[in-house]
């Protein structure tokens, strides 16, 4: 328990003694990093509320899809202005996901269908818990799988010294990042500052400059260093580049700030953000309407981040997830109820995209899970395992996902 | 790695010793402790004992508390706190009654008046599926909005009242122990639509009245509470179809729908609530504990809510739990016997004693103390009051190593701040929101293990930053019901010489005990760091108008208050 503080403060101590890892030293002189020192970054985005996978990645080639959803199905491609965007002749993107189509065309976007948790739960709480703890149907797991990754290993030796190695752009630490490795949760970059001015800041800092090895004072010293580091890096100086146009929404602004953290080279390795509004029991709409609006914000935000990062996308993987999918059949309120398997997106330079991954189980009555939901053919842990091992070099997958044996690699990453 | 961890623990322990303390034991304030241990063995000075007791048995002192405790004697004050029923707390009750309107209402009534939004939608779907295809009517939409607003209000009241009670109550130990049990038996407000109606009842009628009572009574009240039945899923746990049923399952079986055993509560009952994870139970014990509890559920809101035993759901087979056999063919008694068995188990005595000692004494409480407390747990048949008494009157409690060794939780930071400044209860959601901002939203812990109880888990860069900012927020007068001018003497202090100002602040906020370094910083408005012209560029604050949400810098006396609240000393208790 004391270990993490010890290691962390040790690294900061080295930094303050002038023996800093090179990126910290460069940072203090405001220098740019050469490409070789750019770290790998994983950005996890959680769609809370269970996104309706069948209307996100649309199986327009499946006749049963249109029978199950007479009012809310997305029309097949080229059947009008608002129809699915063809990917491979069978699957299409919801029309609101048009901003993601260029990423597909570039070969850096891979949808995965019929993926999710093997647990049969249809509780948001339980299913989010399982997806974040990484242990379906085991409720006793106290930490999140991303934190276990941070605690166990990583390719990025330098990142480990950074207070900003793992940042959640959320008011509180999400379940997936809970655990023994240090992480930072912030509502906005602005917020990670001492909110006062004049000599009050220096006097507060002096309160912690006592040389005590105490955990409170040690952490306090680290904090003032981290705040200065962030201030020197000044992430907010980075304006969106390459025409990136982030939505003004909370989600869009959070992704913009993740982009700023990456560009300011503060040692970010794992970033997290979430977005709600997916629990579409009522009036979810089809090509237009409630879900379309959510997807519009979702796609524009991600597309903006991808353009903004430009070449840096070579080292970035964005992974989207939602706790489960929704019923195959529409309900009596023009919406969909809780279902089973869902869809994910994996986006980034290292991704072998332009292909829809995951075996398609079909939507005929006998093919549905419990006669009602899209069946599961890919365990979410297979995707997470492949991404953290392939992209971040995680070695201890048995620690990340205890009891899970991954089958053949899906080949998500190049 | 083991070795390394132990070494750092030692370093940590050594670092915990307060700076600038004379090493020799000091004569005690009182003759005998309640437990009969000679107080001579107390290492803390008389003043430290007073401050220590007020920081551990209470959420920190209010103005005048230290003088009062010193006058009546620490031991008498501790004994008084151990008997909350003897302390008049009418003022607190009056504040709560006049400030909050929903928390006193029966949950079932609230739930019927303001149904969960999802339920309104579902009812609509059942009523007229064809017409509903286009969505909800205007009437339903209005109802949805009303319910959602009422639920927000209810949640705000639940959180705000928890903080207000901790700030105001004169039954401080009861409130501290209530906080402990609410965390030990944690529930989560976003578990599902039902949970939020149940939280006030859970805190006010399940936990608090039993907080210093018998453990078995508390455990039983929790086991039968709607809040826990819902949070850990036991409400829908029923005998697997392959098992003998106490009664033939009737019809579709009512609520709950999908049948089958749910082990969730059975497991956490053993792992987190009683024996502890290393308490010596097996997976077979978990399954049979869950089987014993099948049929323990609650009535629907239309029936008034509350516990009920549904015999048709109960697994009537024989069960074997921790070496005991529960005979086949019984009903409700299975669960009662299970609770007896786990409440009396030696591992439970140790686990509860350990957790209480960790809460009151130190993150790694001395083993000898834990064993004595566990022995009292056993000999008194789980009398929580006596276990707590053993701990808080022990030499270990009054040891130098225990003094200021605990890092405050966010809840403790906020409540102790408001108390130190003589603040009144805040009926708005703002103070509770500050607790959430510091990382501990009330009833907001998702997993059943509860919030951390050790300092290293609360301390990280983001956390300490938020704490310092909170102190500055309070010093700027931005928190309702509390002012930096609330400390004793602040009507004249701001015009007094600066060393007197600092003395007043250190007395009120730091129990009169600040390190020389902290004192020097409080005294000096001319900090060496601030003198350099370039210092501001390197300082950690945001600058000018760019820093959104930056507070105007408090000056003079309020700034001294803000610095004291941001000091390392104040982060500890």
Number of strands of chain A: 11
**Which structural class do the helices and strands of chain A define?**
alpha/beta
Low-confidence stretches of chain B: 1-38, 129-133, 251-258, 526-548
CATH class of chain A: Alpha Beta
Outline of chain A, from the CA principal axes? Answer: globular
Could you state the order of secondary-structure elements of chain A as H and E? HHEHEHEEHEHHEEHHHEHEEEHH
Proportion in β-strands of chain B: under 5%
Strand content of chain A: 5-15%
Q: Widest sheet of chain A: strand order? A: 7-6-8-1-9-10-5-11
Largest sheet of chain B: 2 strands, antiparallel
Number of domains of chain A: 1
Q: Strands of the biggest beta sheet of chain B: in what spatial order?
A: 1-2
Radius of gyration of chain B: 26 Å
How confident overall, as mean pLDDT of chain A?
Answer: 88
Structure commentary:
The complex is a heterodimer of chains A (414) and B (573). Chain A is of the alpha/beta class. Chain A has helices at residues 3-16, 22-28, 53-56, 63-68, 101-105, 124-133, 145-152, 199-208, 215-233, 250-263, 290-309, 380-390, 397-400, and strands at residues 41-47, 57-58, 85-86, 92-93, 109-116, 166-168, 184-185, 270-275, 316-322, 342-348, 378-379. In chain A, helix 1 (3-16) crosses helix 9 and helix 10 packs parallel to helix 11. The radius of gyration of chain B is 26 Å and the shape is globular. Chain B folds into 4 domains: 2-81 and 364-402, no CATH class; 90-127 and 143-213; 235-343, no CATH class; 410-536 and 549-571, no CATH class. In chain B, the strands form 2 sheets. A two-stranded antiparallel sheet of chain B has the order 1-2. Chains A and B meet through helix 1, helix 6, strand 7, helix 8 and helix 9 of A and helix 1, helix 7, helix 13, helix 21 and helix 22 of B.
């Amino acid at each position: 328990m004391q270990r993490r503080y010890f290691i962390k403060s040790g690294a900061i101590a080295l930094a303050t003694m002038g023996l800093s890892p090179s990126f910290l030293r460069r940072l203090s002189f405001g220098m740019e990093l050469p490409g070789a020192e750019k770290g790998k970054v994983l950005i996890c985005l959680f769609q809370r509320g269970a996104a309706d996978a069948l209307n996100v990645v649309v199986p327009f080639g499946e006749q049963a899809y249109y029978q199950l959803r007479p009012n809310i199905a997305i029309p097949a491609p080229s059947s009008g202005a608002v129809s699915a965007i063809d990917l491979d002749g069978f699957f299409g993107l919801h029309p609101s996901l048009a901003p993601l189509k260029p990423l597909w065309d570039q070969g850096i976007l891979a949808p995965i269908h019929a993926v999710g948790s093997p647990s049969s739960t249809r509780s948001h709480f339980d299913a989010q818990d399982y997806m974040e703890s990484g242990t379906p149907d085991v409720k006793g797991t106290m930490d999140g799988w991303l934190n276990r990754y941070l605690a166990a290993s990583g390719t990025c030796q330098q990142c480990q010294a950074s207070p900003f190695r793992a940042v959640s752009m959320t008011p509180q630490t999400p379940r997936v990042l809970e655990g023994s490795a240090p992480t930072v949760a912030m509502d906005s970059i602005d917020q990670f500052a001492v909110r006062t001015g004049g000599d009050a800041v220096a006097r507060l800092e002096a309160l912690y400059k006592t040389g005590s090895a105490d955990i409170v004072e040690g952490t306090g010293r680290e904090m003032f260093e981290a705040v200065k580091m962030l201030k020197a890096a000044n992430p907010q100086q980075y304006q969106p580049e390459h025409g990136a146009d982030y939505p003004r929404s909370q989600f869009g602004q959070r992704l913009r700030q993740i982009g700023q953290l990456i560009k300011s080279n503060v040692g970010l390795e794992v970033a997290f953000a979430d977005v709600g509004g997916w629990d579409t029991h009522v009036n979810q709409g089809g090509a237009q309407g409630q879900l379309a609006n959510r997807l519009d914000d979702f796609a524009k935000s991600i597309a903006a981040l991808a353009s903004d990062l430009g070449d840096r996308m070579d080292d970035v993987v964005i992974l989207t997830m939602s706790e489960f999918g929704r019923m195959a059949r529409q309900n009596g309120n023009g919406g969909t109820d809780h279902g089973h398997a869902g869809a994910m997106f994996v986006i980034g330079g290292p991704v072998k995209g332009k292909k829809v991954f995951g075996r398609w189980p079909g939507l005929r009555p006998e093919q549905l899970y419990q006669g009602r939901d899209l069946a599961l053919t890919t365990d979410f842990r297979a995707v997470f395992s492949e991404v953290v091992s392939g992209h971040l070099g995680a070695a201890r997958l048995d620690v990340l996902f205890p009891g899970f044996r991954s089958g053949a690699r899906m080949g998500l990453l190049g | 790695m083991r070795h390394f961890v132990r070494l750092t623990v030692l370093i940590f322990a050594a670092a915990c010793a307060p700076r600038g303390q004379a090493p020799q034991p000091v004569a005690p304030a009182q003759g005998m402790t309640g437990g009969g241990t000679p107080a001579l063995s107390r290492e803390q000075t008389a003043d430290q004992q007073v401050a220590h007791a007020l920081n551990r048995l209470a959420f920190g002192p209010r103005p005048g508390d230290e003088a009062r405790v010193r006058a009546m004697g620490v031991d008498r004050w501790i004994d008084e706190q151990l008997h909350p029923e003897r302390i008049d707390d009418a003022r607190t009750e009056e504040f709560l009654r006049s400030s909050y309107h929903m928390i006193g209402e029966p949950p079932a009534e609230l739930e019927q008046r303001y149904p969960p939004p999802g339920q309104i939608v579902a009812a609509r779907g059942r009523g007229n599926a064809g017409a509903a295809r286009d969505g909800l009517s205007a009437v339903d939409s209005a109802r949805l909005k009303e319910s959602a607003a009422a639920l927000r209000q209810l949640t705000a009241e639940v959180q705000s009242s928890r903080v207000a009670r901790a700030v105001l109550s004169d039954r401080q130990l009861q409130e501290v122990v209530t906080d402990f049990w609410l965390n030990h038996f944690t529930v989560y407000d976003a578990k599902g639509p039902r949970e939020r109606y149940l939280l006030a009842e859970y805190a006010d009628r399940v936990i608090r009245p039993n907080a210093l009572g018998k453990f078995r009574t508390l455990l039983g009240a929790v086991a039968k509470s709607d809040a826990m039945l819902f949070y850990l899923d036991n409400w829908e746990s029923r005998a697997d179809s392959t098992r003998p049923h106490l009664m033939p399952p009737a019809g579709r079986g009512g609520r709950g729908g999908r049948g089958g055993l749910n082990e969730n509560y059975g497991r956490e009952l053993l792992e987190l609530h009683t024996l502890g994870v290393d308490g010596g139970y097996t997976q077979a014990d978990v399954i049979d504990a869950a089987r014993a509890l099948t049929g323990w559920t609650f009535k629907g809101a239309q029936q008034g809510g509350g516990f009920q035993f549904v015999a048709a759901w109960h697994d009537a087979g024989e069960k074997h739990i921790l070496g005991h056999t529960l005979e086949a063919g019984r009903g409700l008694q299975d669960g009662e016997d299970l609770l007896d068995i786990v409440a009396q188990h030696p591992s439970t005595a140790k686990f509860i004693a350990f957790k209480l000692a960790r809460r009151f004494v130190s993150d790694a409480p001395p083993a000898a103390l834990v064993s004595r407390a566990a022995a009292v747990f056993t000999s008194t048949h789980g009398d929580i009051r006596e276990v707590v008494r053993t701990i808080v009157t022990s030499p270990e409690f009054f040891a130098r190593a225990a003094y200021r060794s605990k890092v405050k939780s966010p809840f403790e930071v906020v409540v102790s701040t408001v108390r130190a400044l003589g603040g009144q209860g805040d009926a708005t959601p703002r103070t509770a929101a500050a607790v959430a901002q510091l990382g501990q939203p009330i009833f907001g812990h998702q997993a059943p293990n509860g919030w951390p109880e050790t300092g290293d888990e609360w301390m990280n860069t983001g956390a300490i930053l938020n704490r310092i900012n909170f102190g500055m927020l309070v010093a700027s007068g931005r928190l309702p019901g509390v002012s930096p001018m609330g400390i004793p003497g602040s009507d004249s202090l701001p015009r007094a010489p600066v060393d007197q100002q600092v003395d007043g602040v250190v007395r009120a906020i730091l129990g009169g005990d600040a390190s020389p370094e902290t004192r020097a910083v409080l005294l000096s408005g001319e900090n060496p760091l601030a003198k350099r012209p370039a210092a501001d560029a390197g300082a950690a604050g945001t600058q000018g108008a760019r820093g959104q949400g930056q507070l105007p810098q408090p000056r003079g006396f309020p700034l001294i208050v803000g610095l004291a609240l941001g000091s390392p000393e104040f982060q500890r208790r």
